[in-house]
Amino acid sequence: MPKDWSGIQLQVGKVYVYSLTMMLGMLCAILTVWYFWRREKYDLKQLSILIFIALPTAMIGARTFFIIQQAIDKNWDTVKRFWAIWEGGLSIHGGVIFATFSVIMYLRFSKEGKKISFRKAFSIILPAVLIGQAIGRWGNFANHEIYGGIMSVDSFAFKILTPTIRNHMFIGGHYRLPLFLYEFSANLIAYIIIVWVLNFYNWLRPGTTGGIYILYYGIIRAGMEPLRDGSYTIYKVIASLYIIGGLTLIILFEFIIKLNFNVFRIPLSKNEKLGKIFYFIVYEDKVKNIDVSIEENDQPKKESWIKRLKLKKKTNNNESSLGVTS
């Protein structure tokens, strides 16, 4: 009979692995935001303030939503230990909602926050959360939570697992579907596509990828929640609201709300035909009063843009002029 891991929390010395994964996830998310924040040449002091606001509010929101859910299910023993976050019990939904609301309030109503484009911040910060969520799911693995129904030893789902994961999925007298692993994979793939493709090349308007994150995560949770052992109705409702809200924001940011930026399209290839397919877009806030005129043969100015965006390619003197709209 395999060891039953139900209720066991893995530790490194006296430190819970769950706590370590939470901290590592937050660090990776912060570094991701830092990269794009620095690329936009925003004040790093403002980023520090946003981190100072977002981290505690995310923790408070994540724990609050979980405790509310436990209270609804009348799990009073868990409610009484509301401070014991190292034991697990953080709702990603609550963390994202609380932190996002707090950051929006700062950007909208503080004097310094208004200097930062809300739409850009929305696109930079929210999708970066995906890497934190992905890493955090291994904390759920360490606490032996976030698993699905019974998994047959003859099933494909069982056979493709590594021996370590397979053994740790023996919970409650049965092998369980590793939902934590499925969500980790989904979050990691989304992080790569949304952050390091869509955000890196700026192919969508500012704000849109924030909406994509909300829509995507709503779909993921809507699909995962029914498979979960001990599924909660409140999370199904929130997932549905995420889907509706994400779709609404995508439509607003990409198609309806006026684009108050100077837009630069920078080809990534010297070849004219390839340059029309592979390109990088720069959105500059109009309030910066930047001279947006770039002459066809103004090589130094073109190269300054490319250097700023950390693109090592150099345009030649015959390159066609960059498309500029307002």
UniProtKB/TrEMBL annotation:
The record's Gene Ontology biological-process terms are: lipoprotein biosynthetic process
What subcellular compartments does it reside in?
Answer: Cell membrane
Bilayer disposition of the protein:
Multi-pass membrane protein
Membrane-spanning segments:
15-37, 49-72, 92-109, 121-140, 177-198, 234-257
Q: Which PROSITE patterns match?
A: LGT
Name of the top EC class for this enzyme:
transferase
Entry keyword rRNA-binding: no
Please give the Gene Ontology molecular function terms for this protein. phosphatidylglycerol-prolipoprotein diacylglyceryl transferase activity
Give the protein's function.
Answer: Catalyzes the transfer of the diacylglyceryl group from phosphatidylglycerol to the sulfhydryl group of the N-terminal cysteine of a prolipoprotein, the first step in the formation of mature lipoproteins.
* Entries under HAMAP family matching the protein: Lgt (MF_01147)
PANTHER family documented for this protein = PHOSPHATIDYLGLYCEROL--PROLIPOPROTEIN DIACYLGLYCERYL TRANSFERASE (PTHR30589:SF0), PROLIPOPROTEIN DIACYLGLYCERYL TRANSFERASE (PTHR30589)
Q: This protein is called what?
A: Phosphatidylglycerol--prolipoprotein diacylglyceryl transferase
- Lineage, top ranks: Bacteria, Bacillati, Mycoplasmatota, Mycoplasmoidales, Metamycoplasmataceae
Q: Please state the gene responsible for encoding this protein.
A: lgt
